[in-house]
């Protein structure tokens, strides 16, 4: 703070005026700095992306039969961006990805978690159709026309995310603007492999981000590399392959956790992709 002006001479009023002016400039600068800090806090809390600031409305969870769970904030009647989050093999129900889905909802997305299998029904040939049934039911329940749609998944769900992108349009469902596949795999342990859709049918302007875990001893890096290579209809510069080597995020089942490495290496990447996709190619 500038020194208080002394009133011991005839010049005191003038010095007081200058001091007040300097004082005002300092306060203006401090206010500007505080504004920048506030913006930085918002960006950091959203994973470093340019996503809208979280709203104050409470989270809502809507169960749609046995086929899907919806997580959202605010009114579903609005034209909103949608993230479809497909679970890993036998990671049933929305609980395994509760915190991730709630994080996405807080940033403004409507999150759909389809359930493509049950504890007793493990027919791999039916899982893609089951996922589509859940997605369609969720969209119908909300009477929602997405402003943009990103399909994401983990493990078997990551492989299904690519399958959805290749087949959604023919099924009368919204084609995704982006695919986010985390540690994809079609043959998980001793389970029969999930049938593969033709990834070359994914639209050319789709963004694809595929992650492989450096310490993944369940599926390894091979399926992730193969997925990126198979999407030949997508422009090469829109296909990204990333190896995650950060401890705490580099093993196959780490994405189910919500520790700092997972938030930094996985959540933030999806946050940025959702924001970019909503700006580039809104769904019709």
Label the CATH architecture of the largest domain. 3-Layer(aba) Sandwich
Instruction: Tell me the number of strands.
Output: 8
In the CATH scheme, the class of the largest domain would be Alpha Beta
Largest sheet features: 8 strands, mixed
Distance between the termini: 56 Å
- Mean pLDDT over the full residue set: 82
Order of helices and strands: HEEEHEHEHEEHEH
Q: Kindly state the percentage of residues in helix.
A: 25-40%
Number of domains: 2
Low-confidence runs: 1-52
Question: What does the radius of gyration come to?
Answer: 24 Å
Major β-sheet strand ordering: 1-2-4-3-5-6-7-8
What are the defining features of this structure?
284 residues; alpha/beta; Rossmann fold; 2 domains; eight-stranded mixed β-sheet; 6 helices; disordered N terminus
Write a concise synopsis of the structure shown.
The chain is of the alpha/beta class and 284 residues long.
Descriptive account of the structure:
The longest helix is centred in the N-terminal third of the chain and has 34 residues, at 12-45. The protein folds into two domains: 1-45; 55-280, Alpha/Beta hydrolase fold, catalytic domain (Rossmann fold). By secondary structure, the chain is α/β, with parallel strands linked by helices. It is 36% helix and 17% strand. Strands 1-2-4-3-5-6-7-8 form an eight-stranded mixed beta sheet, sandwiched between helices.
């Amino acid at each position: 703070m500038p020194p208080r002006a002394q009133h011991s001479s005839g010049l005191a009023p003038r010095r007081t005026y200058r001091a007040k002016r300097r004082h005002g400039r300092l306060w203006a600068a401090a206010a500007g700095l505080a504004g920048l800090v506030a913006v930085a806090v918002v960006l950091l809390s959203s994973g470093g992306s340019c996503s809208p600031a979280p709203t104050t409305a409470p989270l809502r969870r809507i169960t749609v039969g046995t086929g899907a769970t919806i997580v959202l904030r605010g009114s579903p009647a609005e034209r909103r961006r949608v993230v479809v989050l497909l679970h890993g093999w036998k990671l049933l129900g929305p609980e395994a990805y509760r915190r991730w889905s709630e994080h996405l909802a807080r940033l403004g997305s409507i999150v759909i978690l389809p359930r493509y299998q049950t504890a007793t029904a493990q027919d791999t040939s039916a899982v893609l159709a089951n996922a589509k049934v859940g997605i369609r039911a969720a969209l119908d329940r909300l009477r929602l026309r997405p402003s943009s749609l990103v399909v994401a998944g983990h493990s078997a769900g990551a492989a299904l995310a690519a399958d959805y992108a290749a087949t959604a349009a023919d099924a009368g469902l919204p084609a995704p603007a982006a695919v986010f596949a985390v540690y994809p795999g079609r043959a998980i342990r001793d389970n029969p492999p999930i049938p593969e859709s033709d990834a070359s049918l994914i639209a050319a302007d789709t963004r694809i981000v595929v992650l492989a875990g450096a310490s993944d001893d369940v599926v390894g890096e091979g399926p992730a590399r193969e997925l990126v290579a198979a999407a030949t209809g997508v422009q090469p510069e829109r296909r990204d392959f990333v190896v995650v080597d950060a401890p705490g995020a580099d093993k196959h089942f780490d994405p189910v956790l919500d520790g700092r490495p997972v938030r930094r290496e996985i959540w933030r990447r999806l946050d940025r992709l959702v924001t970019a996709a909503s700006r580039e190619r809104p769904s019709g």
